Amino acid sequence: MDRQNWAQEAAAKIKHKMYIVAGRNRHNIPYTTKDGKFDDWSGDRITWWTNGFWGGIMWLLYQDTGEERYARIARVSEKKMEQCFQDFYGLHHDVGFMFVPTAVADYRLTGSPDSRRIAMHAANLLAGRFNPVGKFIRAWNDLEEDTRGWAIIDCMFNLSLLYWASEESKDPRFRQIAMMHADTVQNNFIRPDGSSCHIVEFNPETGEMVRSFGGQGYKEGSSWTRGQGWALYGFMISYLHTGKQEYLDTAKRVADYCLTHIPENGIIPVDFCQPPQPAYEDSCGACVIAGGLLELAKKMPEGDREKYEEAAMRILRAIAETRADFGEGCDAIVQNCSGAYHSLEHHFTMNYADYYFIEAIYKVKGTDRLLW
Question: Which residues have C-beta within 8 Å of that of residue 224, sequence separation ≥ 6?
Fold first, then answer.
């Protein structure tokens, strides 16, 4: 079966399942499942960084099906998340993950002026986290450690909020901040072999790099796979918004590292450098990498395109055939996700794994519109 027909079959399974799942979670903002049912992160957990992905899934379904019910359910998340601005303290670098799949997506697809207002508010908060001396966007808020000089690879995805704000407002400040951060990441996170650090600490007063941390990966100097996905896909987003060739070159370098480390069976570990046992997996990182590979392939010459598409398909087929639940008993689709290598729990569900899986399937199907 060719790729497009395979993706159409997978999309039909997604559509059938999510029609049911969306209906029974239409008032919730889920993150993970317990006994197969989604939880709800509304209320006092409204600032949780993944809260935009449920609305994002609804916008993906709306984009594919044109069914208004998905737009209505997506807006439940969007309106509830306005409380984040009032609470303020729970917000940090991940406002892009929160408001691009919700408010920005709504505005892109429907032209909603209220969604534009919400998204611009979020973009200004993200721009306010920029350290002009170190030229990076600060990660997190006050943790047990001093994080004033910390930046993380995940934030490459949040830059899409700033690119959108600059394009929408015609104000170059947002784009300039995004590009300075991307340049800092390019120069300090991406190693010569194409692997990526998760966390880099800078002196917040001088901008000098202090050290890097293993973060959610196996150890310092290793390669946390979801971080590889954030880097690959994130630099593709920066390239698509700016046309800067160095960003495309960096995305390709990260992708080439991934290609040499993706197992033959397509099952992605938590860290490409982790020991064989315990065999922890991260299906979420797998889906992010697949999406990035598909975007990169579109910009590659004919002769190079196939290897990136083939690697993405190996991952997606492995997920769909061995790590996906298309039945009605479990609200989540993608199984066997892991937050960090050294976490106490592994192999659970995450709403953003479903988001990136569905998005990648639509890319292969040829009906996607990149919302980032």
Answer: 196, 198, 214, 215, 216, 217, 218, 270, 271, 285, 340, 341
